[in-house]
Amino acid sequence: MCRWLAYFGAPIPLEAALYSPAHSLIDQSLHSQLGAEATNGDGFGIGWYDHTPTPGVFRSIEPAWNDANLRELSAHITSGHFFAHIRAAIGSAVQQTNCHPFRHGRWLFMHNGYIAELATVKRDLMMAVDPSLYCDIAGQTDTEVLFHLALTFGLEDHPAEAVSRAIGVVEDVGSRHGIRDPFQGTIATTDGERMWAFRYSSARKTRTLFFTRDVRALRKLYPDEEVLRRLSDDARLVVSEPVGNLPGAWHEVPESSYGVVGMGEDRLVPFKVQEPGHAVAVGV
Amino acid sequence: MCRWLAYFGAPIPLEAALYSPAHSLIDQSLHSQLGAEATNGDGFGIGWYDHTPTPGVFRSIEPAWNDANLRELSAHITSGHFFAHIRAAIGSAVQQTNCHPFRHGRWLFMHNGYIAELATVKRDLMMAVDPSLYCDIAGQTDTEVLFHLALTFGLEDHPAEAVSRAIGVVEDVGSRHGIRDPFQGTIATTDGERMWAFRYSSARKTRTLFFTRDVRALRKLYPDEEVLRRLSDDARLVVSEPVGNLPGAWHEVPESSYGVVGMGEDRLVPFKVQEPGHAVAVGV
Amino acid sequence: MCRWLAYFGAPIPLEAALYSPAHSLIDQSLHSQLGAEATNGDGFGIGWYDHTPTPGVFRSIEPAWNDANLRELSAHITSGHFFAHIRAAIGSAVQQTNCHPFRHGRWLFMHNGYIAELATVKRDLMMAVDPSLYCDIAGQTDTEVLFHLALTFGLEDHPAEAVSRAIGVVEDVGSRHGIRDPFQGTIATTDGERMWAFRYSSARKTRTLFFTRDVRALRKLYPDEEVLRRLSDDARLVVSEPVGNLPGAWHEVPESSYGVVGMGEDRLVPFKVQEPGHAVAVGV
Amino acid sequence: MCRWLAYFGAPIPLEAALYSPAHSLIDQSLHSQLGAEATNGDGFGIGWYDHTPTPGVFRSIEPAWNDANLRELSAHITSGHFFAHIRAAIGSAVQQTNCHPFRHGRWLFMHNGYIAELATVKRDLMMAVDPSLYCDIAGQTDTEVLFHLALTFGLEDHPAEAVSRAIGVVEDVGSRHGIRDPFQGTIATTDGERMWAFRYSSARKTRTLFFTRDVRALRKLYPDEEVLRRLSDDARLVVSEPVGNLPGAWHEVPESSYGVVGMGEDRLVPFKVQEPGHAVAVGV
Predict the structure, then answer these.
(1) Which of B240, B269, C24, C156 counts the most CB atoms within 10 A of its CB?
(2) DSSP, res D42
(3) Residues of chain A neighbouring C41 (CB-CB closer than 8 A)
């Protein structure tokens, strides 16, 4: 579907993470190796935190690989926490409002995967979104619906539970419509201080998700690798597909689990979908 | 908001209607005189009928005035019935899925105006759309919602009644939310054989709508006018703002009425909004 | 670099040639097998002949594979002779003025390949273009320069000789700058009645070029193939990479030769580059 | 033609200068009062200096007024010196390579005006550009040619003289081609530390150019004006058309003069075009 990258650490110019390593995210827009599609050329987006209250978001419908503006901006924007996403559209239009990351207040949200048979379940899912959030949904993607379901279920207060309940609704509505394996995906969301990265699918065969090992250990392993020198000791990258060409640099997030990355201790936790407490109305 | 033009007559290259006259629709994209906004530069669209079962649609997010592709296509596409629309966005994104005309099967639909306070009423209106049509709504505009409400109420079988009922729902939902004057606009819709053009607003102060007088009479009035020589005897233009500079060429469609233009006799009929037979659910 | 297709035959909707066959040109925009690059997503263009004096041209900077407008237009535009081109940019910007085919009067021109080290030789080549044509060059591509060199040398009167002389200048200027193998490519050009397709490179290792065998013979070979039924008996396709999955359907144009396809007899002729009669000024 | 703004002072988010004041530059993209055209909707660009060696440039072909990315970026990019430009195209394509500001190393350059009859003189002017700079010219505009002429004549060492000589060549070539009044315009150029702003036209009837009075004096005049509180004491704006609605805030740059704004003393100096020492070749 898509490829994404999340960075957390000392501020760096975005280009250091997006362009510099071999097999970078921008390379993956043309030549992904682990993605469902080799080409992720249907637009892209970046979201970054700085001194202002809400994160900045830049989204474009051009392929990332040749985009002059993305190259400029990622050389000039410096951030200690940012998201980047390249898109392979499946059915919905190539337009900015369909590009990740999505934003709500201080929160960003991005996704690689899908809600199965979206046309069948979309109306029911939209009905389950808090009415006050309904008109914030600007595009057509499954991801934006999922994000607003999670917001409905309290993403801002207890993110893991809210994502669990949102996927629970997707699975509940899907199964009532006879859809096998309603959800697939890796998800990243953040409030700018801590990031949650999920790997889950109804079929328990989820797209890959990786995070970096300790940067200090990596530097010992690869003393000549320039990209590692630009990263702070506590820097972490979470990616749908490894960037760089450094065996041993990446841990795979296990199936049905999520990681929390932030100021304090990082954690890796099993992820379980929460069934809706009360049935969600279907086909009203 | 926007400006639009509809043509019905012997096949002509689109450019004859879009570019040739003084103060043409394309000129109006830069310098509208009667529009709510002088500039209509937030994208455009054309829809045309030819030998294929469904009309063609070309939509772009560029301003029309300098668009090289629109100039090419309108010189090479010949049609006996087409719609053209230039957009001034009010709130929603500049993206192709927000550009008029909208299409469903053989039907086209375009609009100059608005549903007041869309964010307040959109969810209720979307709920009133037939669930089987819900996922056909690709963009964010009030017009596309209105179109699908009209389809829900039988646009394909009895167009005037369906539009009347659709606006009835808009006014009903709006008034329940305490919105004064929920609807404003001129609308054109067609199945390729007959076209319906509506002028109506809740406040009875609707944007202008004009149609051409008999072309033969016009030719006598303006024997030197080249654009008239390119039109067939039975050609009709319906526009939100007169094109050309020909006093006496245009009739104004009266407030709260609609015209039918097509193969047979044209008609001009009073338009009354139909209140919903049963209350539409609000704020479910 | 790029992929291209040229059609000559009874009028068909463009989509019949662009989308219908397996491994169609539009598929090749995502997954080329023979191209220098697998992805040709840096814009596209079509040029077609109809009843108007000059061919129509539609060019876009979006990837072809998901472009809604290209799909619409190729379903509604019918032509007996058209060019289509998908681009993989090498160095120059992704903008409409860099998209093929290029047009001059009734002539179209497109190319898969390159002028080596364009930055080194461009000024000299531009100086060799007829001054009256200088300002017609709107974009940055090597192809557009080559086209205007060919026009300078009489493309409209004796196309094969003009292309030969144009490439001759490219090789002459290149070799003076110490460039090894200055030219590479397959070229198609047409005046709407006859088409010339060239395969040539300074190193004599030119990108592939194919043309269809006799359609009647193909129909016997593949009686169930729908795409063949839509083609007229005299239809010919010339492509940089075979479309469809029909072994035996394609002839390869031999190295250093060109074909002429048109109303009369088709011909396949050896191609020789003509050295400039007088030296072209270098580094003035 | 166009409208532009240059800021020099303590770092501010770009939005403080671009969006905040009444009749801001972004408003002028829709409703210019002093421009040759009321609408400047054919793309825009910003260039800004930060901690990196070369200024950042972001350019887009969308109209500025509704551009979501420009709004985002100007809220998140903070700079002590930046250029912004909104374009009304006259003849050349709407593409990023035609958008101002143009950049060379640490230098930015933008322009409101034109070289008269560019098609007639362009080839001669391009020949006068240093061959090593020839291929840096990526777009079609007169401004980019002028910039590279100025670079040819030593812009980086003695800017005012170089601009004077560049315009001298334009006037010389123009007059040899019988063009009356070959040059028109206001120009801004900067190396990031000092900025030069020129007002000159061959006919001595140049488009307007304004700069702010002392901010401290302005604050006394308008104690309640929020935009003034965001500016540092030494902040200066130079604009083609006043922003804000503050009588007394603006000085007009006199006809045929230029200002220098920077770290040290500002200066306002008469501007004289320098005739080419040796004749520039025409029509070679």
Answers:
(1) B240
(2) S
(3) 39, 41, 63, 65
Strands (E), chain A: 2-13, 44-48, 56-60, 78-87, 102-104, 107-115, 183-190, 194-201, 210-212, 236-239, 250-252, 257-262, 267-270
Helix axes A159-176, A142-152, angle to 10 degrees: 120
Long-range CB pairs of D153-162, under 8 A, 24+ apart, other chains included: D155/D107, D155/D189, D156/D105, D156/D107, D156/D191, D159/D189, D159/D191, D159/D196, D160/D196, D160/D198, D160/D258, D160/D260, D160/D269, D160/D271, D161/D274
pLDDT bracket for residue D282 (50, 70, 90): low
The alpha carbon dihedral of B91, B95, B101, B103 has a sign of negative
Residues from chain D contacting residue A52 (CB–CB below 8 Å): 13, 75-76
Which of A1, A30, A39 should we substitute to test contact with C (largest number of C Cβ atoms within 10 Å)?
A: A39
Q: What ipTM goes with this model? A: 0.90
Distance from CA of B19 to the nearest CA of D (A): 17
The alpha carbon dihedral of C9, C13, C18, C20 has a sign of negative
Supply A8's token pair.
Answer: 């957390």
Specify the pLDDT at position C232.
Answer: 84
Query: Which is nearest to C104 in space by CA: C48, C54, C52, C44?
Result: C54
Q: Which residues from D are below 8 Å from C95, CB to CB?
A: 93, 95-97
Residue D255 has pLDDT above 60, yes or no: yes
Q: Which residue has the higher pLDDT, C70 or D266?
A: C70
C41 in contact with chain A, both atoms CB, cutoff 8 A = yes
Q: Which residue in B125, B102, B122, B117 sits closest to B47, CA to CA?
A: B102
Query: Hey, are the CB atoms on C75 and B57 less than 8 Å from each other?
Result: no
Q: Does D91 touch chain C (CB under 8 A)?
A: no
What is the C-alpha to C-alpha distance for residues D167 and D174, in angstroms, rounded to an integer? Answer: 10
Question: Do the Cβ atoms of D140 and C93 come within 8 Å?
Answer: no
Which residues touch B53 (CB under 8 Å, ≥6 apart)? B106
Angle between helices B142-152 and B118-128 (to 10 degrees): 30
Candidates C41, C66, C93; nearest CB to A89: C66
